[in-house]
Structures are given as C-alpha cells and as structure tokens.
Amino acid sequence: MCHTHDHAHEHDHHDLGEPTDAETSAALDLTIDDSELSPAQLSRRGLFRSAGILGGATALGMAGVTPAMASGDDERTGSAGGGVRTWLAGDHHIHTQYSSDAMYRVLDQVQHGAAYGLDWMVITDHGGATHSRIGVELVNPDIVAARELLPDTLVFQGLEWNIPSAEHGTVFVAPGRNEVAVLKQFETDYDGSVNGTSSSSPANEAQALAAITWLGRQVDRRRVDDALFLANHPARQGIDSPHEIRAWRDADPRIAIGFEGAPGHQAAGLPAGIGPGSARGFYAGSPGANSFPGYPVESYRTWGGFDWLTATVGGLWDSLLAEGKPWSISANSDSHSNWGDTSRRPDGSSSEQFNRDGRYGDPVYSGGINLTAGDYWPGLYSRTHVGAARRDYLAVMRGLRDGRIWVDHGRLVKTLDVTVRVRGDRGSAVPLGSTLRARRGSRVELVVRITAQDLPNWSQFVPQLNRVDLIRGTVEPGHADDQRDTFVAPDTRVVQQWDTSGRTGTYEIVHDLGRVDEPFYVRLRGTDGNRSQPGFLGAAIDPEGPAIDVVGNADPWIDLWFYTNPIWVAPTR
C-alpha cells in the first residue's frame, strides 16, 4: 500500500511519554498563554480543547480536581435535561465469516441482535494479515446492506485490534466515506499481529500509544466524525498491565474510553453435556511470559461472569476511578459460534480458503444442535446500555465517551436510571459518567430508579433482582502518578446494601450521601443473589461480592449481575 509523505509523519514517536502532573496542570491553566507552554504542555492543552474538557478546573477553582471531573459540558448537567433522552442497548464485540475463527454473515448477527433487543452493534472481525489485506473492504458492503435492511438498528464497522504488547481491543469509527480507509490504515500500521509487535516491550507499548494518538488525529482532521477504542477481555491472559491501561487512557481520553467489565463467551462455563464444560468467558489461563507479574492467579478467572479487574471492589477499575478520570466498562457477546445454533461452515472451508478469499462461505444447516460452542447471540445474554441524546451513530458514541453506561446479564432488570443531586434540588441531578459540582458542606443524595423485570429472558424465566450494592471511593487525583502499576484503591468499599427481593414495578431508592467535603465517586452493582462470597480484598471491603467462577461448572443463567459506571462528586468553594 502506498503511503503519502503526510502519513509518514504519523509514526513520529518522540512525544509519546506519559504526561506528568505538571504538564497537565500547566495545560489546564488558562492564565498561561499558548506561547509560554512547552511542546508537551501545548500538546496536552490541544487534547483537552478537542475533548471539550478544558477550562473547568481553573474557572471553578476546584483544587485537586482532574480535567475529567471539571468538565463544563452542558450536556452533563442532568438525566432529564442533560443529554440522556433514551437508553440504547448494544454490543461492541461481534465476529462474522470475515474472522478466521467465526462463521456468521453480518446480517445473521445483526438480525439476531435486533431480535434480542439491541439498538446498536459493532462488527469487529479480527485484525491480522488477511483482514488488513482484503477483509476490511470485503465486509463493508455487508455492513452497508445490513444498515439498509434493518434501518432501526445502528451497525458500526470496526475491528478487533491486536494491541501491541497487550491483549485485544475494539476499535470502531462513525460511518462515513472514510470508514474503510481509516480502519484499513490503522490495522496495517498498528496491529500487533500484522507488524509482529504483540510481545511485551517498551517499544511495543509505545506503538500502542502511537495508534491511539493516530486515531485521534483522524478525528481532528475530519477524516472520520468519531472513533473509539475499548480493551477486550483485559484480565484473560494477564497481559494488560495497569500502566499500559493508564497510558492508553492518557494518550487520548477521547479515543481510549474503557474496557470490557464482563467478557463474552458466557456460555463457555455451562457444564459438559449441556455446554462446553470450559471456563466462563474462556477465562481458563494462567500467568505466561508476557503477563504482568503483580496479578494474582485468581485474576485469570471471571467472578460472577465479570472480569476480575472490574469485579474486585477496590481493585484496578476502582484505582482508575479514584484518580478522577473516566474509564468505562461494557458487557458483550464476543460472538463467534453460538451455543444452541444449528448451522455450520460450508464444506470446503479451510484456513487456506480463508486466507485466499478473506472470508468463509455462508453458513449452512448442520442437522444438529451445537452444545459445545461458548457464545451467545448478541443481545441474548449480555447488554451494554448507553444513555444517548437521540438514536443515531454519533449520539451512541458520545454517550459511550461520556460514560453514560450500565451493563447487565440475563435481562436482570427492565430499566435502570441513576443520578446524584444536591439534596432537595432536582434540577442539580447528574447522570452516570458525570460529575456533580456541589458547594462544600452541602448535602448530596443518590437516586436510583429501577423497573423490575416482568418479562421472561431468553432462558425463559423472569429474573429477580434481590440486592443492590452501593460502592463508594475517595478521589485522590494524581495518587498513581508515581505508581502507574497500582491496582488497588484502598479507600473504596461497599457502603450500603439494599434488599430488593420481591419488589415489582418501578421503585426508587433515595440515599443520603452526606455532606460534601472531599471529592468522591459512587457506583452500583446489583444481583439475583444466587452466588456470592466475600470480595477478593476481604469482607470489610466487600461482604457479598460475586463468587469466582468454577471451570467446567459455571451456569451463567443462575448468576446474574448488573454494574453501573460511576458518578463523581466534587466540592466547590
């Protein structure tokens, strides 16, 4: 592929160092003119400007508040009037016949996802030599056709990126005339499998940061209207180190926005005889040569179907949130070959044929039921709910970036809405992913509005939400600046539990969070209560967390949870 001179400059890695606290502070201080900033500081200021998060900290005089917490975005001022007009369920991790280990047509996946209640989906075939050579172009007409055939369903084109020095990740862009060109160039230049940069090394880590930075430039240059990256199954092999995750986020927080809180492959833990008899999420590994040495052996299993980095109260996800910077979670199918399906690849399918054609032939009827596959159809079990201002592509991407997200398994609840407000002031309420800026000393409260499930899920029973947990953590901006590999937040813990068993219809939980003295955040978790154990960091932190999943015996339908993104609270003078 021929590259222009302009593109060659995209590989300049001299300014990929991790930003220091001083660089960030100077970039945010609008009393300092652009001409007085160093190149690194000026780069940070440009990033904050383009992300729409510059100016809030200085204008509000909020000592110790990070740029994300100081956002002055008008759309983040409340659920009713703050950009959340509708909740749209989706899945950002789906494979098709254009992946070497999958089999379905794009339309198969989209049609099933729509039937199971999804509003948006991302097609993410595996990055690699064949996909980068011809697969990116080949799949696009199928995606365009699915958009036309199912106009009420938003279908994004993306890919599953082999992150240099790390695991996999979803990368996707807003539809447009350059969606194929940008994805193809990204994969060709930055995919770890394509370029032999998968092993752990500082040079390969820098390549991942260059990739995220490059995506941001494509948005700045208006080649695409938007682009996002989320890390997939981050703890599965233990190779996504804490400092890498922080570096991805800091490279461009408009682009790198989160990771899978719960992986796909949820059917994999069904016992042999009715399922594969493997590990839920296919999390059956152990430490390897490229694994981060600080992770314990328990991190290589799911906990209640969720990744250990998310499921551990006071763990890595909380350590990121305690820095006051956004980092979101999702729940997805990772659909390749689906449990209970009756199709197979056509005769003649082989790796040689796939490498030649860039795809497998259309699936055919198998004459039997597949009980050894580990996946579910998109929407059948896992859902990522995004609060959006309207039903369109850019609104979904904006909702994801703003952190207006909650996730659930097995349709545990029908609807969920969470806000934090100044006590007695309904107009001050802010939704998930936002920051409530409240006068120091004022009282604030959490409002949780739940509609209990009254319809059977796709396993033909009506799930029951039996408990809701409130998790709270102190925010200490910069606490990890000199310890980028920390994965604990010692001040985060479960502070309240509500018994919701037997509740029906729509009901509210209103909880006094006390007076605002220092920055903090809250997030929620809910469960059917079937499987619990003290959290990994102990009962004093988490008395009834999800239980570690047993390899070969982890029925996902009797272990249902929901998780929400956080809401931050920051005092003003």
UniProtKB/TrEMBL annotation:
Residues 1-17 have a biased composition (Basic and acidic residues). Residues 90-165 form the Polymerase/histidinol phosphatase N-terminal domain. Pfam families: PHP. One of its GO terms (molecular function) is 5'-3' RNA exonuclease activity. SUPFAM superfamilies: PHP domain-like. Residues 331-341 have a biased composition (Polar residues). It comes from the Bacteria. Residues 1-20, 331-359 are annotated as: Disordered. This is Histidinol-phosphatase. It comes from Jiangella anatolica.
